[in-house]
Amino acid sequence: MDVIQLFKDYLLHEKRYSQNTADCYCRDIKLLQEYFSKSGVELQELDKDDLKDYLGAIYSEVKPASLRRKIAAVRQLYSLLLRRKIIDEDPSLTISGPGRSGLLPSALSRQEMEKLINFNYSNDLKGLRNRAIIELLYSSGIRVGELVSAKTKDIDFNNRIIRVFGKGKKERLIPVTSQALSTLDTYLHKRGRRNNDTIIFCNLRGKPLTERGVQYIIDRIATECGIFRKVTPHMLRHSFATHFLENGMNLRYLQHLLGHSNLSTTEVYTHLSIEELKKVYNRSHPGSTKKK
After folding, report:
1. Is 13 a known active-site residue?
2. Fewer CB within 10 Å, N or C, the chain?
3. Active site annotation includes 143
4. CATH number assigned to the domain comprising residue 23
5. What is the pLDDT of residues 227-274, one digit of tens each?
6. In 10 A of CB 110, how many CB atoms?
7. Whether residue 234 lies in the annotated active site
């Protein structure tokens, strides 16, 4: 199926867009298609995480007006594919442009992460589950979709590793902190009914948690911690990457941990805070040494 030609015909004949606008939108979609061509993923197969990864990769390379147009083109395309029943769900619904939340969530500060980790969670099943979610997301950097689909057989407690399946069902093994695994083990023992094919995170009715359910949990805990801005699961992933880079992790290693097929996607996490850059500068530049 020639998705781009279908899109162009729709813009010209149904939306009555000008030739110039239709050409611009189609060029934007062509760039999106080319970005994922190496991995063999078709436009109609992309999900919301793919779109966020792509927009994150080009975020620093285009002007805000151009970025807004590219997002508008993506929204129009997937709205069309949904109406034509080519896809079952619109992956662009959660994408927001410059000036609004959601496109590239900022990293939480270390102090904010400490608030989430050290929050006074209850010792009941709900509290243990919520703590395990926060600690596992931050210690591994996995996507929320990978979190909710993880099963007990994917956790290697002896070697402190979690196995996840990312884009294109590509498997990767990720180290996890002892603290996160200890909390997870306690939660699983408290919940019971533990076997290899058990989904790890469930609601209180025993049904697997959804991505939206995890979003709600994290946002509510953040508010109770005194973090008065919207906190999403993707922000924990962003914080994981940013804090690792601040501590000197090689970008290639981080690319593997995050499951990015393109290094350019990982490079978006290299935008360190100005305060961190000042610290590095002051430690490194001979002229910045304070005189005693």
Report:
1. no
2. C
3. yes
4. 1.10.150
5. 877 888 988 988 888 888 777 777 778 887 887 777 766 666 665 444
6. 12
7. yes
